[in-house]
Design goal:
- This protein has 155 residues and is of the alpha+beta class.
- The protein has 3 helices and 4 strands.
- Helices cover 35% and strands 35% of the residues.
- The model has no long low-confidence stretch (mean pLDDT 77).
Length: 155
């Protein structure tokens, strides 16, 4: 049946395209996370190494895992936030696991105007915290946030 064969071919192409898109997304996420981690693990500012601006080496040595997440948030009255990142865990031999991809979405209502792009690194010091991120459970957070920034871009 020709119609069925055409449908199957379209489905196969669509599925292959979405697999490539997922691979591209994951690759881009890993590259972004690597850049963020490198800049914080070896903070060079003005050509000079500045350890006060990075992750303490002792924290990296003690870490059981890490989460590196980049988010973009913005809005006016109603807001939205999307983000992607990776989770890695320290293995028994001291090396790091392959990265697992994570995503974050959120929204809000209230008096607000603007946008921000934020990179966050969470150092996980317990096996339980690593398992919590690896489990991939959804979370709901309710709260209040107040932020004001005045001055040049980047401050």
């Amino acid at each position: 049946d020709g119609a069925r064969a055409l449908h199957d071919a379209r489905f196969s192409v669509s599925r292959a395209t979405s697999n490539i898109t997922a691979i591209d997304w994951f690759y881009t996420t890993v590259v972004k996370a690597t850049k963020v981690l490198r800049s914080l693990a070896n903070p060079v500012i003005g050509g000079k190494y500045n350890p006060d601006k990075g992750i303490p080496r002792a924290a990296l040595r003690q870490a059981k895992g890490m989460v590196i997440l980049t988010t973009l948030a913005g809005g006016a009255v109603a807001s939205g936030m999307v983000g992607s990142g990776i989770v890695v865990a320290r293995l028994a031999d001291g090396s790091w696991s392959p990265p697992a991809g994570i995503a974050a979405i959120g929204g809000g209502l209230g008096v607000q105007l603007g946008a921000r792009n934020t990179s966050t690194v969470l150092i996980l010091f317990t096996e339980a915290s690593v398992r919590a991120f690896m489990r991939g459970s959804a979370q709901l957070k309710l709260g209040f946030d107040l932020a004001v920034a005045v001055g040049p871009v980047g401050r």
